[in-house]
Design goal:
Elements lengths: L2 H11 L5 H9 L6 H11 L6 H14 E4 L7 H12 L13 E4 L4 H8 L5 E6 L9 H14 L3 E5 L2 H5 L3 H15 L3 E5 L8 H13 L4 E3 L11 H18 L4 E3 L7 H14 L12 E3 L2 H14 L12
Parallel strand pairs: 1-2, 1-8, 2-3, 3-4, 4-5, 5-6, 6-7
Helix pairs in contact: 3-11, 4-12, 4-13, 5-6, 7-9, 10-11, 11-12
């Protein structure tokens, strides 16, 4: 890290001490050109990736999947089966890579941990009163600690959108800081729930707020509201992590989640990552897909490329 970056990081770390300073900084960020962002995202979505490059992109996308189940009907048997699929997505093809992580509710973490232990696949758990974020801080922190103690090495927290939209930035900042401390060695992904933030300017502010407070990843959505990840929103978040690293020397990951279902969708996101922030982020340590159905489409397209035969959806287990 350069001396300039070190100084900038030190200056930025002081922002959380004052609501006024934090507000001034966040509202001083450059505004997002809505038309420009949407046109840029649409343009990148037209890039054509074929043959060898497509095969490489599919394998990379598989390695970036956070295979997710967040349903009230989740059972130990269901999440164990999901974890087994995460390890061997295509049992008939040992060359198929494993996914990035399995993401479940805290109560299901011990059952997933039994399957994943020592595998290299991460175990993520949502916490902090997911998906609403509406709970007392002590409840959110207890939720986080319980998930980590049960075996989660990644925590996906959700911000209090009500506080953010009301301009109570210090409250949101302090909750992220406290949750990061409760994580211990586990990585923290901060869910912005961009579908409720209304504007791209708010997405940029929330992204910076999450990074300033110590988030290791910024994530678009819970997948529990009608509007989830979109290419323009992800573009704004990628620009934020790029600018944050330039200012501080610290790299932060990005996770679009919700509504990403096809190989074509995933490749559009990978193109956007490469064109916006560069190859440093083309790695599961820095970019993930939050998805439940994406993996099966990736597997079907992978089989088609390798064998020339299209495998129908019944060929792979349903999640």
């Amino acid at each position: 890290m350069t001396a300039t970056a070190t100084s900038a990081r030190s200056d930025l770390s002081e922002l959380g001490r004052s609501e006024t300073a934090l507000r001034t900084f966040l509202h001083g960020l450059p505004g997002v050109d809505q038309v420009g962002a949407e046109q840029r995202a649409a343009q990148l979505g037209t890039r054509s990736i074929k043959t060898t490059a497509k095969a490489q992109a599919i394998d990379l996308a598989i390695r970036m999947v956070d295979l997710t189940t967040l349903e009230g009907a989740d059972t130990p048997g269901k999440v164990r089966a999901l974890a087994a699929k995460a390890l061997r997505p295509d049992p008939a093809d040992p060359s198929c890579p494993h996914v990035g992580a399995v993401c479940v509710y805290p109560l299901m973490v011990p059952y997933v941990a039994e399957v994943l232990r020592g595998s290299g696949v991460h175990l993520a758990s949502v916490a902090t009163a997911f998906p609403s974020g509406q709970a007392p801080l002590e409840v959110k922190l207890a939720d986080t600690r319980a998930a980590v103690e049960a075996g989660a090495d990644e925590i996906d927290m959700v911000i209090n959108r009500g506080a953010f939209l009301a301009g109570r930035y210090s409250e949101v900042y302090d909750e992220i800081v406290a949750t990061k401390q409760a994580c211990g060695d586990a990585h923290l992904k901060v869910i912005l729930e961009t579908g409720e933030l209304a504007t791209y300017d708010n997405v940029r502010r929330a992204s910076w707020l999450a990074m300033l407070a110590g988030g290791d990843f910024i994530k678009t959505s819970t997948g529990k509201v009608p509007v989830a990840a979109t290419l323009p929103v992800t573009l704004v978040m990628l620009e934020a992590v790029r600018d944050f690293r330039a200012a501080t020397g610290r790299q932060v990951g990005v996770k679009p989640a919700g509504g990403i279902k096809t190989t074509k969708d995933a490749i559009k996101y990978l193109v956007m990552v490469n064109e916006t922030v560069g190859p440093d982020w083309l790695d599961p340590d820095w970019f993930r897909f939050g998805a439940s159905s994406l993996l099966n489409d990736l597997l079907m397209q992978r089989t088609k490329l390798k064998t020339g035969v299209y495998a129908g959806p019944d060929y792979f287990t349903l999640d």
